[in-house]
Design goal:
The structure is a single chain. The chain is an alpha+beta fold. It has a four-stranded mixed β-sheet, covered by helices on one side. The protein has a two-stranded antiparallel ribbon with strand order 5-6. Strand 5 and strand 6 form a beta hairpin. Helix 1 crosses helix 6 and helix 4 packs across helix 6. The protein is globular and about 55 Å long. The relative contact order is 0.15.
Length: 215
């Protein structure tokens, strides 16, 4: 696995390049959701399966990537959480696609011997536990760019009242992402700000202005 600093614009271009490669053989993807499962299987040639993954104390692991066998493994013990949380399955898939595209050294991988039965989980998707390292941050940013391309997202929200939670949940379902992933993507685009109490503002600047007015 390789790790180096990558700007958001670099990660966005990497995600866009994956989507363009998929579109070149499968047709344009103009509307959500982005078919991430087909991208992994048909374009990236990654396998997807469910199996048990051991978890360190005080950590919940949802999925892992085994580069040597080109496999994304979902944790069987977390199946209910993954399948019952709207958008989580596709969010995790896109996150692991980020690891595959951004962090796996494909040149070295091609020179490795055939994989053994023992899996080498180089990247783990955690829902709880210690803070995330740079690779996890990059994979999650890649996920946001792949599942919610800027142009597609801006087109989708043209007539959406973003300051209403029901509207955000409808948007979540259209893009098949978690509500947290959608919130973060909109916030990083400067289109929304959500307070710790769940109040919605058009931007962080407007929220801070309102706070100053009330103080």
């Amino acid at each position: 696995m390789t790790t180096k600093f990558l700007s958001d614009s670099q990660l966005e271009e990497m995600a866009a390049r994956v989507l363009r490669r998929y579109e070149s053989s499968h047709g344009a993807v103009n509307n959500p959701p982005v078919p991430v499962e087909r991208i992994l299987e048909d374009l990236l040639d990654l396998n997807i399966l469910w199996d048990d993954i051991s978890e360190p104390p005080r950590q919940s692991i949802l999925a892992a990537l085994d580069p040597s066998s080109k496999t994304v493994v979902f944790n069987e013990s977390r199946r209910t959480l993954i399948t019952d949380t709207p958008g989580l399955y596709y969010t995790v898939l896109a996150h692991e696609a980020g690891h595959w595209e951004v962090h796996v050294d494909h040149g070295i991988l091609a020179q490795l011997p055939l994989p053994t039965l023992e899996r080498d989980f180089s990247c783990l998707y955690r829902s709880s536990g210690p803070g995330q390292d740079l690779r996890e941050v990059q994979a999650h940013r890649f996920m946001g760019f792949l599942l919610m391309p800027s142009e597609m997202l801006r087109e989708a929200i043209k007539d959406v009242e973003l300051l209403r939670w029901p509207a955000l949940y409808e948007l979540r379902d259209r893009f098949q992402v978690t509500i947290t992933a959608l919130k973060v993507r909109l916030e990083r685009l400067g289109l929304l700000y959500v307070t710790e109490d769940g109040d919605l503002y058009p931007s962080q600047q407007e929220y801070e202005g309102q706070v100053r007015l009330r103080s």
